Amino acid sequence: MINTDTVCALIAKKLGSKAADLTLDADTAFDSVGLSSLQIADIVYTIEDDAEVELDPSQAANVKTVGDLVQLVETTRAAGATA
Question: pLDDT tens digit string along 44-57?
Fold first, then answer.
């Protein structure tokens, strides 16, 4: 299951030692922590693999915070379960 802690752990891994000075939570904006667009895309792809979902690219592009990404994954999984 993908949750806020999972996404925050991925961000911390990408940031390395820089993450020690940050408080990561559901309200954390990806662009506020210094992630490049490539790093954000890598996180999204990792989440897709881990959750076994395929996110709509246009919706994924609009994700701004950790909470937004978790919500998108949950919504996508729920839609897949009912389809």
Answer: 999 999 989 999 99
SS3 content of the chain, % helix, strand, coil (to 5): 70, 0, 25
pLDDT tens figures, 3-62: 999 999 999 999 999 898 999 999 999 989 988 889 999 999 999 999 899 999 999 888
Identify any residues that bridge with 29 across adjacent strands, giving them in sequence order.
65
Backbone angles phi, psi at 18, to 5 degrees: -65, -25
Q: How crowded is residue 80: how many other Cβ atoms within 10 Å of its Cβ?
A: 11
Q: What b/e string do you get for 33-43 counting C-beta neighbours within 10 Å, with b at 16 or more? A: bebeeebbeeb
Distance CA 62, CA 56 (A): 10
